[in-house]
Each structure stands twice: as C-alpha cells, then as structure tokens.
Design a protein that fits this description.
The complex is a heterotrimer of chains A (291), B (472) and C (345). Chain B is mainly α. Chain B has 17 helices and five strands. Chain C folds into two domains: 165 residues, Response regulator (Rossmann fold), CATH 3.40.50; 166 residues, Response regulator (Rossmann fold, 3-Layer(aba) Sandwich), CATH 3.40.50.2300. Helices cover 46% and strands 19% of the residues of chain C. Classes of the chains: A alpha/beta (291), B mainly alpha (472), C alpha/beta (345).
Chain lengths: 291, 472, 345
C-alpha cells in the first residue's frame, strides 16, 4: 500500500515538475529512481492498551526532507523513535534501501546509518562535548584505551563547522548554553556519515539566528543526498525546509502532501480536524468524507 | 578526562588567589585537594592531641612529630586496616556513579570468606595435605569466582528482572547473611592456609621490605613523570592548550614527594622485637650485641631514631601486601573509569541513562558487568579480611556496606549519579579509617567514635554541596 | 467473662495441686521458644524434650519466630492447654512480663530459661554470666598475676558485655588496687566482630608500644582477632588471651597455646537442669526447695527472684581432653597443628 502511495506521488511530482522550488526536481529524480531510502510499513505500537501509533506508513527518499506534523501525542515522535530504535514496534516492517531490516534497539538503527537528534538532545550532562560526540563508539588507541586526544581533535573540527565560537571542550555539557548543547547533539548525529537523519524539534531551544543556521545545515545535508525526517511544531519551519509533509493524528496518518501542493490553512485543517485537502494523499487517519 | 569537572579554561581572569590559580593551572580536582587537606588536619590533630593529653606513658621510639598518631607503625597499620574497604569502595563508586547501589556487599564478603575458609580448611587441606602450595591459589580463585558470580546474580536481577538495586541488594544483605551462617553454622574456621594468610599482611616478614619498597617508589615516580610528559606531548601534537610549565613541574614534584615520604615512613617501621628474635633464630642469624635502655630493652639507631631491636639486629617492614593490592586495584579501577570506553559508558549512563541507551550503549549488559566487578572486588576484600584475621566467620564483613558507601560519599561522589572519582572514594575510606583508628588509639569511647564518624559523613556531604553551588 | 476465666483458672489450680501431690508422672511441660533461627535452640529443645519424656511427662512447645507479639499469643495458647509449667525463652525481656503474669494468674509455674525476665514468681535458670567473666579473669590471672591488662569488650548495646566486664573486675580488683595490674586499654567492639576486635587490639598495641601483658577478650570470635593482632607483633602465645563459647577454632587455639581459656557453656547441661527443675515444679516441689536454687537480684530492675545459676566450664590446655570426650569437638579439629599437648597425643 505504501508502495502504491509512493508511485502515485511520483506521478504527481512528474506532473508538477516545473514548480518554483529548487529542491523539487531533486526529489523527483530521487523518486524516479524508485527505491525509497527508508520505508516504514504498517507500524503499530501500544503503551498499556493505548495505541500510540496505529498502522502508520511513511517513507523517505535520498536528498529529501519529510516534515512530520501533528499535535502533541499525535504519535509522530513515537513513530520516529521506532525508527531510531528507542521503542520496539508491535507490528510492521521497516525497509532501508528496499531491504527489510530489524531494528530493536538504537545500535541496530545506527548500524543502518540512521542517526537521531532527539528533542531532549539525549546528552550525558556530566560528560564533555567529545565524550558525548563519541558516546557508544569511542575512538581507541592501539592499546584499546580511549583516545581522548584524537576524539577532542575531531570534535574541535566538527564543532568549528557548526559553531565556530565554541571553545568549552573541557567542560561537561551541563555547563553549556542551550544553543551550544544543541550543536553538540547535531554534531553527534552528522559526524558518523549518517544516511538518514531524524530531527525531533531541532530548533526548539534556539534563537532566530541559530534557527537559521540549522536551516542552512539542513539544506547542505540534503545536497549531500541525506534523507531527513523533520519533526516540528512550527509550520513555517516545515514549509521552509521540507519537500513533503506527513500529518498524524491519534496515531494515524491523516495524509501526505508535497509542501507546494497545500496551504498553511489546509495543513492546519489536517492537524486539527483530520481533514485531508485535495492536494494531499489521504491516509487511514483521514476523515472519511474528506477522502 | 571528561568525567571530572575540570576547571574552566576560559574564565574571567580576575584577581585570583594563589590557590585558585594553582588549581586552575594544574587542573587538580579541588575536592581531592580538600580531602587531602582534611586528612592532614585529622592526622595532625590526633598527633598533637596524643602528645598533649594522652595518659599512656609511651617511650620515644619511632615518633616523627612527638605524637603517637603520625608514627611509622600507626600509619602502616592504618594503610592495612583501610585496604579492604578502600578496594570495595572503588566498585561501589562505579555503581553509585551509574545510579545503582549494592547493600549486599557486607553479607557477600561473609559468604565468600566462610566459603573459601571451609574450602581450604575442611576440604583442600585434608585432600592435598596441609600447606600444599595449590591451596591458596585455589582459594583465591574460588573467592574471586564466587564473588563475581554473586555480583552477576545481583546484576541480572537488577538489569533484566528490573527490580530496583536497592531492593535486590537489600534482599541480598539479608539472604547472603543467612547463607553465610548456614555454610558455617555460626562457627569460626581457623587457621587459614599458611600461604593464604600472608595475603592479609599480618605477617610482617612477608611485606615488601626496604629494597623492594624503594623499587616500587622508583617505579611509581617514573610512572608519574611519564604520564605527565606523555599527556603534554599528546596535547602538543594536536595543538591543544597546554598547562603552564611550572604547573607540570609542580604536579611531578608533588607526586614524587608524596610517594617518597610514604615509602620512607613504611621503611622505617621495624619488625616487632619478638618477630625479629624468632626470625633470627629460624634463620640462624647471629645478632651483634646492642645497647640496652633503662628498661633492659635492646636499642639500636635507625637513622636519627632510637628504636628497639634485638641486640643490634633490626629489619624494616616496607609496604604490606594488602596495601600493594589496594594500590593495584586503585590504579586499575582509575584506569577503567577514565581510560576505557567501559568506564566512559558508566559515567554517561549515570549522567543520563536514557541518553546512554539512545547512544547505542547496552545499559543492561553494562549494569550486569558493573555488578560483577563489584562482586569481584568483594572477593578481593574477603581474601584480605579473612587472611588478615587468619579466620573466617559469618560476622566478618557485617555492616561493611555502610562503611563502603560512606567512604564513597565522603569521597565526593554524587548519589544522583554521574560524578565521582576512584581516588576520592579511596581517600574517603582512608579518612574514615583514620578517624576510627585515631580515636581508638587515644582510647575514646566507642559511642563517641560512632557519633564523630556519622557527623563527619554528613558534614562532608554538606561541604561538598557548598562547593558545588559555589562553582556553579 | 473475667469470672469465667477466673473459674477456669481456679479449676486448673486445684487440679494441679491435687495431681501434683498424688502422681509424679503424666504432667505437661510447655516451652515457648523465642526463635529456632539460631541453631543452638534446636539442641536445647532436644535435650529438654528427652528429659521430660524420660520422666513420663508430656512436652509441648511453640516457636515465636523472633516476634514479641507472636510470643504473647503463643503463651496464651499454651495456657489454654493447661500445662503444669511453662518455660519461656523471652524474645523481649520487658514485653514478656504481662504474659508471665497471665501464666501465674492461671496458677501455672513459670521458668525464665536463659533469658531473664524480672518476675518474682518465676524461676530463672541460666549460666552465671558474671561468673563467666570471673572465670576468664581467674584463668588469665593464674598466668599473669601482674602487668598491663587490655580489655576487649563486646558490643556496647549488649548488657552481657558489661556483666562480663564486671565479673572480670571483681576478680582483678585486689591486684588493681594494689597497682599490680594496670588497665591500659579498654574498648567496646562493634557487633562483637572479630575484625573490629583485631583493629582495636592493633590500636591498643600501638598506643602502649606493645606493653600489654594479658588480654581479656569477652568471647572467642574476638579472641581470634586479638590473637591475629598479637601474632603480627610476634606476641601470640606469650600473652594470655581469654574467650568464651567453646568455639572449635578457639579450642584449637587453646591447644596451640595462643589462647589461654575458652569458657564453655554446655547448653545440654542448661537444658537438663531446666527440664529437671520443671519436672520438680510440676510435681509440686516448692520453688525454693529445688536443688541449686538461690536468690538472685542482679537484673536491670533488681527484682529478687529464685534462680539456678550454672557454673560454666573453663576449657584450658589441661582439660581439652574433656571437650573431646564430651563429643563437642573431634580430636583432629582440636589438635590441628598442635605438637605439645597431652590430650593430642
């Protein structure tokens, strides 16, 4: 079913190729290649009898940014945490490059090139930037001990790209500002050649200037062919950055649409009422009559 | 070293006192320095007190500052008495850093001690013949294996059965206590195998002696110098900010002086007269005539000091075996905590368990490993304790868990996880034992002793809180 | 209700009195045990049961499982079975008193077995704890009539630690007053633990520069710590050390000569004495006419009661053979590593 959806969107994309968005042709090229980078099919998970995610299917193509929208508790974070290995799904399949893979914990996700920037940042506050960057995959010396110097060196380089003013390499991250912590979390996600990046509210703690910086970063990563899931409350962010958006409500997908095919108000209608507009492909969570 | 909060590299360069400047330049943890200072104050206090108020007329042999606390003999004893608790405190440190806890270690120590006690006395000795060389080796491996196994059991219940560590190990405290009693039915097994007994350090003839103690000192000083040089070289290679040269020199000199002083102290502690007498007889050593003091005791010159000896024959003790084991464990555990990914994961898990799990760390497996390590160290503790006493009984080790936890907490470890150092925990153990030994030495009432130790525990945490707030 | 109970009690009393005079056998002896968690009580029970049944009497019992409340309920249950004597091993010496009053209100005789409760009507049977201290001091004094004495006392929370110390001082008082014996260290030992005793002894030796001539340790476990500390100074075997309990390892030390005495309280002896006293009481013998009974008021509240205080046995290098013969210890255990003791040859 998800595959059919993908084909449909592909057709639409081809039709509307001469759109103004620079990223659209790229996406269509990717789509034309056929195999999605990630495909989550028919995923469900329940916590204590409450279905947090209910038969949801989403996909992502290389070089594409897919925005996930929905109210708090709509299931978007939960769905994405299944992909990053934080939760184990009850039913459903996950494909990467068309091959089914098993993700039962964060290690599996990382092994498949899936990196995540969590809303909570998931930093060990008592450890410094380099320690956090390499947490779980530390660099070792020939003797098998931690190569702190090499890790600090690499951290200095990657942090320079993201945040040239960052100097506090020796301090635990609890002493850093919100923006600095965010850059550490982002650095960790992009440093290990991720192919699939999940960003859960990446700009929540940031000021306007830093938010713009993250926007630039996303464009840069896209250009490198990395697929990005972007979860955000902020419609403007999503419209600015995402090629496609998926709206969820009550654990179900309301609909999928290209950002250029829908308006802000239509998307709000999807989020609030579950009403699927013309420009979108309805999902199982859409109101019947709207579909 | 990402585990210890280091002093900032980019602070406002306001007017700072010499101590602040020293701490910043040398990157010494202020807590460790504070504890070392507290230790010195306690030692000096006891020494002065004993000189002023002690009612016991003691003679002048082996005194360094004239009091009866800072003497080679008392410091040597102190190091021995601290060894077992200090060793176990390093494991408890990692557990507490990881937001876990083990209340069962005292009972575990009893169980392991009586198990290997009965093993060597009632099983191995009759089977292999008393004094067989294999006995102590089997007993040692048995202790380590049993301790690790019990730790593993605790760890599995905590990590996989998801029972809180407090509950699992509280149950263990009670249940293993019963197990120890059941193994031995309240009896005492004694004496231990004669080689095994040496591991307790209670037989001065088998301490390191003067020569080897100084060899240890030279190795230690070389190690300090090398590690300072190596870390500077590494940082140079990557063009990182360096410590000022004077700070490097200061660190090297301070470390070397401390090692030297300690070695000097233990190498001027002579064997007890009766021990020398026995040794001389056993080894057919003819002893030259000495001088006698007014009580008729033979006296010799040991450096500047007049000491008792057997007619001109004197032998010095040097580092004891339990102390060397404790130092070895301390170095190994420090290494594990700061230089391995295992240690890094423990600290990260303590700082934010969810983040550690999301970073791909298998925190369950890690939890089990740390409990196994704790059990292994309890095994070492039980070897030292039962060898030192030359007997094993089910009351051995009881309430050790409280002293070990107290040592870790006095050592600046945060009970909310993520923060603490191995050296801090071991210094905490030494500090607590210093208080207890000192007050016993001066014949303070034991009720008073308990009150002081309890008050110090609370005060130490309070001071630590103040420090943490002031740093923020 | 009260009246009915009273009537039942009077009936029971009458029956007891009449039966007591007429017939020696067929009585019932009840025991309320405080716990069977410590193994020794099972041994005590076996002894008492054997003596009671050999006399043709009936033995009934209950186990309070270490709970004062359960023991109170247990005793009510035992009273209901109308025994002639109830023997009580009190879990809590104060909390038990109302139950003891119920026993005497029901016209039943009560015996305080090993643990004292201060009820003037009860018979108290135990080893003479102050006497244990006296024996320790006597045996050590024999070896070292003068010099520096160290006192390694038990846990400060246990009244026995102080009883023992009092007994020791009674014996040593004359020599201490004469300045012949000096108290150079005196310390309580947390939890009676051997490793604490070892540390305490080490500190004592350090503070006195090894000038310790004798050590009065209040039990065998602590004596093992004391001997270890002495050994490190090459003084084990030359300094007399006391202890109690008849620990197997301690008897071995006595044979080796590193410990002077282990005062042994043979609990079989205690059980036998208590069972015989119970039978005598059941048969109507007046409490102060039972052999071995004397007045005792050494308890906390100084209540005067009738008591049988058994003298414990000192095990020294001269009578180790007796302990072996009594089956308390095997010859191999007692004599491991021993070269020059008569009993080991």
């Amino acid at each position: 079913m998800a595959k059919r959806t993908a084909k449909k969107t592909a057709l639409k994309v081809v039709k509307k190729t001469p759109a103004k968005k620079a990223s659209a042709p790229k996406a269509s090229v990717a789509v034309a290649r056929g195999t999605p980078l990630v495909e989550m099919k028919d995923i469900s998970i329940a916590f204590g009898g409450i279905k947090a995610v209910d038969h949801a299917s989403i996909d992502l193509y290389p070089g594409e940014v897919v925005g996930l929208l929905g109210h708090n508790g709509a299931g978007k974070s939960t769905l994405i945490k299944i992909l990053s290995g934080a939760y184990k799904r009850d039913v459903g399949q996950i494909f990467v490059d068309g091959k089914e893979i098993s993700i039962t914990n964060p290690r599996d996700a990382k092994a498949n090139g899936i990196e995540t920037i969590y809303q909570t940042l998931a930093l060990a506050d008592n450890v410094d930037a380099a320690g956090n960057l390499y947490l779980g995959r530390e660099l070792k010396t020939r003797l098998g001990t931690l190569d702190d110097v090499a890790m600090e060196d690499a951290t200095r380089k990657v942090m320079f790209k993201l945040n040239p003013n960052f100097r506090r390499f020796k301090e635990p991250v609890s002493k850093l500002s919100g923006g600095q912590r965010q850059s550490v979390a982002i650095a960790r996600a992009i440093h290990f050649n991720a192919r699939i990046l999940i960003m859960d509210e990446p700009t929540a703690a940031l000021g306007p200037q830093e938010t713009a910086q993250v926007g630039e970063l996303i464009k840069q990563l896209k250009a490198e062919g990395i697929g990005i899931f972007l979860i955000s409350h902020d419609l403007h962010d999503v419209f600015d950055l995402a090629d496609r958006l998926v709206v969820m409500k009550n654990g179900k997908v309301v609909g999928t649409a290209y950002t250029k095919d829908v308006t802000h108000d239509e998307v709000l209608g999807m989020i609030i009422a579950g009403k699927c507009p013309k420009g979108a492909i309805p999902g199982p969570g859409a109101l019947r009559d709207a579909a | 070293m990402s585990n210890t909060p280091n002093t900032s590299q980019s602070p406002a360069v306001e007017k700072e006192g010499p101590i602040t400047r020293l701490l910043r330049a040398t990157e010494i943890d202020a807590r460790i320095l504070g504890m070392a200072a507290a230790l010195l104050v306690i030692w000096a206090g006891f020494d002065i007190y004993s000189r002023l108020f002690s009612t016991i007329g003691f003679d002048s042999d082996g005194l360094i500052f004239g009091g009866s606390f800072i003497t080679p003999r008392n410091l040597w004893n102190l190091l021995n008495q601290t060894a077992s608790i200090a060793i176990m405190s390093t494991g408890m440190l990692l557990l507490i850093v990881m937001r876990q806890l083990d209340l069962s270690i005292g009972s575990m120590l009893s169980t392991v001690a009586v198990a290997i006690g009965t093993l060597q006395v009632f099983r191995l000795a009759p089977a292999l013949g008393e004094g067989n060389r294999a006995i102590w080796i089997i007993a040692v491996f048995g202790a380590l294996a049993l301790g690790s196994f019990m730790g593993w059991f605790n760890g599995v219940l905590v990590a996989y059965a998801r029972i809180p560590a407090f509950i699992v190990t509280l149950g263990g405290l009670i249940a293993y206590g019963g197990l120890a009693w059941a193994i031995i039915r309240g009896e005492t097994v004694a004496p231990m195998d004669s080689t095994f007994e040496l591991l307790g350090g209670n037989v001065p003839q088998y301490s390191l002696g003067v020569f080897w103690s100084w060899v240890v000192a030279v190795v230690a000083i070389s190690g300090i110098v090398y590690s300072i040089w190596n870390s500077r070289r590494q940082r140079q290679r990557f063009n990182f900010p360096l410590r000022p040269m004077w700070a490097e020199w200061f660190l090297g000199a301070a470390g070397s002086v401390m090692v030297g002083l300690l070695t000097w102290v233990v190498t001027i502690y002579p064997w007890a007269p009766n021990v020398i007498k026995q040794w001389a007889t056993d080894h057919h050593i003819t002893v030259p005539a000495g001088i006698e003091d007014k009580d008729g005791n033979a006296i010799c010159m040991a450096g500047e000091q007049m000491v008792r000896c057997v007619h001109g024959y004197i032998v010095y003790t040097g580092y004891s075996i339990p102390f060397m084991i404790a130092v070895g464990v301390g170095l190994a555990m420090s290494f594990v905590a700061t230089r391995t990914s295992f240690g890094r994961h423990i600290y990260a898990t303590g700082g934010n368990p969810e983040a550690a799990e999301l970073s791909g760390i298998n925190t369950k497996k890690l939890t089990v490993k740390v409990f196994i390590l704790m059990g292994f160290l309890v095994g070492i503790g039980s070897i030292i304790t039962s060898a030192r006493l030359n007997a094993a009984t089910n009351s051995l080790g009881q309430s050790n868990e409280l002293y070990v936890i107290a040592a870790v907490v006095i050592g600046g470890t945060s009970l909310s996880g993520g923060i603490g150092t191995v050296s801090g925990a071991m210094l905490g153990a030494l500090l607590m034992q210093s208080l207890q030994s000192g007050m016993t030495l001066l014949n303070f009432e034991s009720a008073f002793r308990d009150m002081v130790v309890g008050a110090v525990l609370v005060a130490a945490v309070f001071v630590d809180q103040l420090y943490r707030r002031s740093v923020k | 209700m009260k009246n009915i109970v009273k009537a039942v009690m009077l009936g029971a009393l009458a029956a007891t009195a009449m039966g007591g005079v007429a017939n020696a056998a067929g009585k019932t002896i009840a025991v309320s045990w405080k716990t069977f968690q410590e193994e020794r009580w099972k041994g005590d029970e076996a002894t008492i049961k054997a003596v009671v049944e050999a006399a043709g009497d009936k033995y009934i019992s209950s186990d309070a499982q270490g709970s004062a409340q359960k023991q109170a309920a247990d005793i009510e249950g035992l009273i209901a079975q109308k025994p002639d004597v109830i023997m009580v091993v009190a879990f809590d010496a104060d909390a038990i008193l109302p139950s003891i009053k119920k026993i005497s209100d029901a016209g039943i005789k009560s015996i305080a077995y090993d643990v004292q409760f201060e009820d003037p009507n009860a018979l108290y049977i135990t080893f003479d704890n102050v006497g244990v201290g006296r024996i320790m001091a006597k045996e050590v004094l024999k070896v070292k009539p003068e010099g520096n004495y160290a006192f390694i006392k038990g846990d400060k929370g246990d009244p026995n630690a102080t009883f023992l110390f009092q007994g020791q001082l009674e014996v040593l008082k004359a020599q201490m007053d004469a300045g012949k014996i000096k108290n150079v260290c005196e310390t309580f030992t947390d939890g009676w633990k051997p490793d604490n005793a070892q540390k305490n002894m080490e500190q004592c030796l350090t503070s006195t520069k090894n000038k310790v001539d004798a050590v009065l340790s209040e039990n065998d476990g602590m004596a093992s710590g004391v001997v270890a500390a002495l050994k490190a100074q090459g003084m084990a075997g030359t300094v007399p050390v006391s202890g109690q309990d008849g620990d197997l390892a301690a008897i071995n030390r006595v044979a080796l000569g590193t410990q002077t005495v282990s005062v042994w309280k043979d609990t079989a002896q205690l059980g036998k004495a208590a069972a015989n006293a119970a039978i005598a009481l059941a048969d109507g013998t007046a409490i102060d006419k039972i052999p071995g009974v004397a007045k005792f008021n050494g308890g906390k509240k100084k209540v005067e009661m009738n008591a049988i205080l058994l003298a414990p046995t000192p095990i020294t290098k001269d009578n180790i053979g007796d302990a072996i013969k009594a089956g308390h210890i095997t010859k191999e255990q007692a004599c491991a590593g021993v070269k020059d003791n008569a009993a080991c040859k």
